[in-house]
Specification:
The chain has about 260 residues and is α+β, with helices and mostly antiparallel strands. It folds into 3 domains: about 5-75, Winged helix-like DNA-binding domain superfamily/Winged helix DNA-binding domain (Arc Repressor Mutant, subunit A, Orthogonal Bundle), CATH 1.10.10.10; about 95-155, Alpha-Beta Plaits, CATH 3.30.70; about 175-255, no CATH class. Helix content is about 50%, strand content about 10%. The strands form 2 sheets. Strands 4-5-3-6 form a 4-stranded antiparallel beta sheet, covered by helices on one side. A hairpin with a 2-residue loop joins β1 and β2 (about 65-70).
């Protein structure tokens, strides 16, 4: 990774984590970077991030305040705002995708399976997938099947008496494997916490550490559909991992204050 992208990753992480402690100013954010500034051209990098709408700089009380935009915040979070996903309301309805595509459309079927997986749908059967949210993207993407209800149809449903949403969740998503990924992240972070003392020594140390952390977090998220809280299994580990991430990145930011 080149120095510009490393520094951007460092700044994004510190701005996001630092905002948990106090509103960062350009001075208190960059003080530990003074020894690096000639090598890394910090001001030019901040300008580049402004041009990409990742940060804004504002003057407040004779100081320059740096903050992430919504786009920058999402980028710093690794592309998924887990709190927003977890805290969204649920209307109690399941959206069902049911299809039986002809053998000659195997490629379309494979693409559909991949799309459904990548967008957090739960797998009940090869041709029956579910999601807790409205899914206009599916309707738009598969508009050509709208009139061919024997091949493909979208429906909304609720559980009948005697069936539970908890059973649907456990049948549609592999939360045993999802929790395994979060446990792996928690173990990784325990090991990485021991390395925090070295992070202020150089941007290379900090950049490499942040890349490892982000990769571990994205791997932990890869299988998780990020269901609303009302649908969480009792032993769901996602929030515990998220709290660990906040605590550790917050501690990293504190070292730079």
């Amino acid at each position: 990774m080149n120095t510009k992208s490393v520094l951007e990753e460092i700044l994004m992480a510190l701005l996001w984590a630092g905002d948990k402690l106090a509103r960062p100013t350009l001075n208190n954010l960059t003080e530990p970077f003074e020894a690096w500034e000639r090598r890394w051209d910090l001001n030019r990098q901040l300008k580049r991030m402004e041009d990409r709408n990742l940060i804004v700089r504002e003057k407040q009380a004779q100081k320059i305040v740096v903050r992430l935009t919504e786009l920058g915040r999402l980028e710093a979070l690794g592309g998924k705002d887990v709190l927003a996903r977890w805290n969204r309301p649920w209307d109690g309805r399941w959206r069902q995708v049911l299809f039986d595509l002809p053998a000659r459309q195997r490629r379309v079927r494979t693409q559909l399976w991949r799309w459904l997986r990548d967008n957090g749908f739960g797998y009940l059967q090869q041709s029956v997938w579910i999601h807790p949210d409205p899914v206009p993207e599916v309707v738009e993407a598969l508009d050509k099947f709208r009139e061919d209800v024997e091949s493909f149809i979208l429906m909304e449903a609720t559980c009948c008496a005697g069936y539970s949403n908890a059973a649907v969740v456990n049948g549609a998503w592999d939360f045993k494997e999802i929790n395994k990924q979060y446990d792996a992240y928690l173990e990784t972070m325990k090991l990485m916490k021991a390395e925090m003392k070295r992070l202020v020594e150089s941007p290379d140390n900090l950049g490499a550490w942040l890349r490892r952390e982000r990769n571990a977090w994205q791997q932990a998220l890869a299988l998780d559909p990020l269901l609303p809280r009302a649908l969480w299994p009792k032993d769901y580990r996602g929030e515990q991992a998220w709290q660990m991430r906040q605590a550790v990145l917050g501690a990293v930011a504190a070292r730079f204050r």
